[in-house]
Amino acid sequence: MDALLSSLFSSEKEELYILDRMAYFMVLMAACTLVTLLFENVPYGRYASSKYGFPVNVRFAWFVQEMPAFLVPLCLVVSTSSAKTSLLPNQLLIAMYFCHYIQRSLIYPFLIRGGKSTPFASFALAFVFCLYNGYMQIRYLSHYAEYPAYWVTHPCFIAGSVLWFFGWLVNVHSDHILRNLRKPGETGYKIPTGGMFEYVSGANFLGEITEWAGFALAGYSVHSSAFAIFTTVVLTSRAVAHHKWYHAKFEDYPKSRKALIPFLF
Predict the structure, then answer these.
(1) Each residue of 159-218: pLDDT tens digit?
(2) 151 vs 84, 88, 142, 154, 156, CA distance in Å?
(3) d(C-alpha 182, C-alpha 186), whole Å
(4) Cellular component GO terms, alphabetically (predicted)?
(5) What residue spans define the domains of the chain?
(6) Is 218 in contact with 156 (CB distance < 8 Å)?
(7) For residue 118, what are the β-bridge partners?
């Protein structure tokens, strides 16, 4: 892996420059995505459409598209001269990242029950994003990120870590609720209840947004912030779309339930 990176970049200074530009580009893509999502829902799940390509089995799609977010960082940590992985702040941030993606790429796909096929375009874009972001996050944390020795006791790191953990728990628990809405043999959609679904329609999205916002606060870098911004844009749009869909489909949908932020929005 070191040889490959050496062939791509003439120096560490150049690679860090590229990593920074990648983060800024992700923020730009978040802005473009925000505009696009004003007119079109992300085409997977209940919003899947044949105009975005042939269908890909949902379990296969989730497994393959998320795998670069796990394998590329794993190779970067194991197979390169990771100069910063001996430092505690870097270790903890890398652990947060892997904790999410081990669950998302190696566990979540095999727990899916039913589910609509994913259009190829959505599958391909997700694959590219996971490859791009996996390299950007972990290469920066494992080789370039520098934190003061006291960083793990800094309020930003502590608050960010708490937010990340709370978001991770909400995300995993909400996915569990969604998987178990239907009894064996049942089909169709049901109103999710329990956990944060008592307060918002997009509890799973709220969990993931909170998770990466905490990661960004703890990591305190343009790279982690860009990821949090992009995630917030995509998942906020999806939560609002779900909220409108639930209200249109179910006459008895709870009127007090918000789209994404309890009691507010």
Answers:
(1) 999 999 999 999 999 999 999 998 777 777 899 999 999 999 999 999 999 999 999 999
(2) 14, 9, 16, 5, 8
(3) 6
(4) endoplasmic reticulum membrane
(5) 1-249
(6) yes
(7) 56
